[in-house]
Design a protein that fits this description.
Largest sheet: 6 strands, mixed, barrel
Number of strands: 28
Low-confidence stretches: none
Distance between the termini: 34 Å
Helix content: 10-25%
Radius of gyration: 27 Å
Structural class: alpha+beta
């Protein structure tokens, strides 16, 4: 669901195809019949944007099925490994009680310092928490912050521990998570799914039965999704809904199970791990923010540390990161340079930044590895680019972003004059992937080192070269400054020039291996003494590590684990642990303690993965000389658990981190060690997934008529002429449109439209139109058609097909159309910009846009 895997991720799709040859069932739920659908055992049509209704229907079907209620496996997994039994705060009110919203909804006032957050509302999540015993006596967090306690910061972390949560293992308490969940999804019946999604009832039931039949002790099922689940105003909740379903079915932490996020590029995963994101720093720690209680190092730790999970080690991750940033200048006396670190003011995501740019708030932009002139609400984006004083574009070719000032559609139409654009534009030619050394982090969190195949021509340089040399120049510019705001730049550690004996590929090129060593980490003051894993990190400044989740990928000076390429022998079960290196700690299945039962035994021989070996003789601790008791977690994978913690081990009363969890709490990154069916904290749009309509929809919300869309979704530049939005059921824009990718082209086309063989395979822009709509509009195959939305109007060739068509939704016949979005005006194959149709609206958790479900009109040109 949310993916055309055969088309968009063909290399990875060989594994589902191999599974199919072994007897697995392949299901594709998608608005279009695609290359993935063509090889699936079952294709189920669905209206774009209605996936939560479909998944919620599966949840309702599962928990009321005979199979789920009679097979003891499901209850054993759910009661012990999820928060199903936990009692929720008595003040919590569900959407079923409040006609479409959760308790805690209030109005939201934008901070004057940054008015581009886009929020349409805000929840106060206080009522979503667990019902707990009062917190016991102990150190007071505020006092520890005030007197600057630590390092070590254990007392500060311990002061954050809440009282024990109340539970009902029988799952009968009306305020327990399971009962709340059952009530929440009770109206998501097969009949309701058919009405909302347009998915035939019989096919929906077939999907539900296949999932039930292929889940349990001996069988598992997996979901794979891509951006057709993320690019919605409730995209995060779609994924959360799938995780909820998989937890109910026992399909998390086990082989052949889980929820796979399919990344559209070899290093997309890496660009969030070692982030190019505004809201996080390395290893998914939140970026220090002026809008959160992050006034000091200890205040940040208090706000961001979860004391009773592995995140209880956050002080160690953070201090080691700051040591990597500022080196010897970061000391305990100056809080390891925390005050030098930049702080965000609010939402600085892509759309928020362009909304600010359109208002003249942003003066310059460095654009690397993206092509925003063909991106979200393209007309508004190009108008924003024209407000810049300077723009740097670094790419393989002269892209639309580099040439919008004289070749953009507004210039061609005469709406904008070239002479009116005051932006100074610099273009830097970039290398291709095969022209430098480095590493990728792929869909399964695996780092793989690659070596260059050939050198780049002329003045083409790597992105690494660009940023490395820019940083060195910045260091020189700030060297003489005495301003307090410049101390961060003065103290930032920047030592990536090649060592003697290491020949750079290009003049001024930094050492890629040196950068990866810095990311891995080492003993402070001795870069040659690498850290072997994040278990060695300290919060006293004695360890340096840029990214804690990557710690262990380079455990010795000459041991680059990411360069390994040794597969497991044929026929031997395993996880290919000697091929590359996967974070965290080279484990391939996260939360794999859940692959064993409460006693540590595999749920079945067929699904054996990680288990407790009570006879294992542990070696003595090198520091104390004392050996732990016999017993260790072993298996085909690296256990995602404390290696010698027995299944019957109990939490330590004053324990923090893993010491606060028992031997049967497998979800070690969660505060209660359990998978969350109900999300008490962390999501801004509700603790349970709820069906809302897309921001633009042809139909009313059948489940919650009083709340058409998410009450807290984001709209940027609301009311501005360049971001107009259609009303519900707007007769001027009656059709649902979704955008997608093709195998033959790549993203905005900068890596494919300049290649003659790919441009020949897919030479021009088209729109897929169902035969019924084509007949209604008098459109024949290959006719030119105009496609319009409230934001723009474009032209494309018609592809009249049975692969997309009409769905019966809420008693209305709703036509779907689909368009690939690879084109622009540059390259060998050119076409209109499909994203000129999209809007600046998005998800409130991650600010991603809603490009997979909006409305349009189609007319014969």
């Amino acid at each position: 669901m949310g993916s055309n895997m055969a088309e968009c991720h063909p290399v990875a799709f060989r594994w589902p195809m191999k599974a199919k040859l072994n007897g697995a069932k392949l299901i594709h739920v998608d608005p279009r019949f695609t290359r993935t659908s063509a090889v699936a055992d079952l294709h189920v049509p669905i209206r774009a944007g209605s996936d939560i209704a479909f998944l919620g229907g599966l949840i309702n079907y599962v928990v009321n099925s005979g199979r789920w209620n009679t097979d003891p496996f499901f209850k054993e997994f759910v009661v012990n490994y999820t928060n199903a039994a936990t009692i929720i705060n008595k003040d919590f009110k569900d959407t079923e009680e409040l006609e479409g919203v959760f308790s805690g909804l209030n109005t939201f006032s934008e901070p004057a310092s940054w008015p581009y957050n886009g929020n349409q509302g805000r929840y106060d999540p206080a009522s979503w928490g667990y019902e707990r015993d009062p917190k016991g006596p102990g150190p007071v967090t505020a006092d520890l912050i005030a007197r600057r306690a630590g390092p070590p910061f254990d007392d500060l972390v311990r002061s954050l521990k809440p009282g024990p949560a109340h539970k009902d293992p029988t799952l009968q308490n009306p305020q327990c998570v399971f009962q709340i969940l059952k009530r929440h999804f009770a109206r998501y019946t097969p009949e309701m799914v058919e009405q909302i999604c347009g998915s035939p009832k019989d096919k929906f039931i077939q999907v539900a039965e296949l999932l039930l039949a292929n889940s349990g002790r001996d069988r598992t099922s997996a979901f794979a999704y891509a951006v057709a689940w993320t690019q919605h105003t409730y995209g995060v909740q779609m994924i959360s809904c799938c995780a909820l379903l998989q937890l109910l079915l026992g399909n998390i932490g086990r082989p052949g199970a889980g929820v796979m996020a399919l990344r559209g590029h070899a290093a997309i995963q890496g660009s969030t791990d070692v982030p190019t994101l505004y809201h996080s720093i390395h290893g998914y720690m939140n970026a220090p923010s002026a809008l959160r209680p992050h006034e000091s190092l200890r205040a940040y730790m208090a706000a961001e540390t979860t004391p009773t999970s592995y995140y209880g080690n956050t002080p160690k991750f953070l201090v080691s990161y700051l040591k990597s940033m500022y080196g010897e200048a970061a000391t305990a006396e100056n809080d390891f340079g925390y005050d030098w670190h930049p702080k965000i003011l609010g939402d600085h995501s892509h759309i928020a930044s362009f909304a600010a740019m359109a208002d003249g708030k942003i003066k310059g932009m460095v654009c690397v590895g993206q092509n925003p002139a063909t991106s979200l609400n393209g007309g508004a984006t190009r108008a924003a680019l024209r407000q810049l004083k300077w723009l740097v574009v670094k790419d393989n070719w002269l892209t639309e972003t580099a040439t919008h000032w004289y070749l953009g559609p507004e210039v061609k139409s005469g709406e904008v004059k070239v002479g009116d654009n005051q932006t100074e534009i610099f273009f830097f030619p970039a290398t291709q992937i095969a022209e430098y050394d480095g590493s990728f982090t792929n869909t399964q969190r695996m780092l793989q080192w690659h070596s260059y195949a050939t050198k780049a021509p002329g003045d083409c340089r790597t992105d690494t070269w660009f940023y490395h040399n820019l940083a060195k120049r910045m260091k020189r510019l700030y060297a003489a400054s005495t301003a307090s705001r410049d101390q961060g730049w003065k103290n930032v550690l920047w030592d990536f020039d090649p060592d003697s004996g290491e020949t750079p590929l290009y003049p001024g090129e930094p050492s890629a291996r040196k950068i990866l060593r810095e990311i891995n980490g080492y003993v402070t003051g001795n870069p040659a003494q690498h850290l072997k894993g994040f278990g060695e990190l300290k919060d006293d400044g004695s360890t340096t590590c840029a990214s804690w989740i990557y710690c262990g990928c380079y455990p010795a000076w000459d041991q680059n684990m990411t360069a390994r390429r040794t597969p497991d022998p044929p026929g031997v079960p395993g996880a290919h642990l000697a091929w590359g290196w996967a974070w965290p700690a080279n484990r391939r299945v996260m939360y794999n303690r859940a692959s064993a039962d409460l006693k540590g035994n595999p749920w079945s021989e067929r699904k054996r993965w990680v288990w407790w070996d009570a006879t294992f003789v542990n070696p003595p601790d090198p520091k104390t000389g004392v050996a732990p008791p016999h017993g260790k977690w072993v298996g085909y994978d690296v256990p995602d658990f404390a290696a010698t913690k027995a299944p019957d081990a109990q939490p330590k009363p004053d324990g923090i981190g893993l010491d606060a969890l028992s031997g049967s709490q497998p979800f070690i990154m969660r505060a209660d060690g359990r998978g969350w069916l109900f999300v008490p904290a962390g999501l801004v749009d509700g603790p349970l997934p709820t069906h809302y309509e897309p921001r633009e929809s042809p139909v009313q919300n059948l489940l919650y008529p009083k709340h058409q869309m998410s009450p807290v979704h984001k709209v940027w530049a609301a009311g501005k002429p360049y971001n107009q939005l259609a009303v519900v059921g707007d007769p001027k824009f009656p059709y649902v449109i979704t955008t997608y990718r093709l195998t033959e082209h790549y993203l905005a086309g900068a890596m494919s439209r300049w290649l003659p063989w790919l441009s020949e395979l897919q030479p021009e822009l088209f729109i897929e139109i169902g035969k019924a709509l084509a007949q209604e509009k008098g459109i024949s195959n290959l006719d030119w058609v105009h496609i319009s939305s409230p934001r723009g109007r474009i032209k494309a060739k018609a592809l009249v097909t049975d692969r997309i068509g009409v769905l019966n939704v809420a008693g209305k016949q709703i036509h779907h159309v689909g368009m690939p979005w690879h084109w622009g005006w540059m390259g060998l194959s050119t076409g209109d910009v499909v994203n000129d149709l999209t809007a600046w609206v998005g998800d409130p958790n991650v600010s991603i846009h809603e490009g997979k479900a909006f409305v349009c009109n189609v007319e014969r040109a």
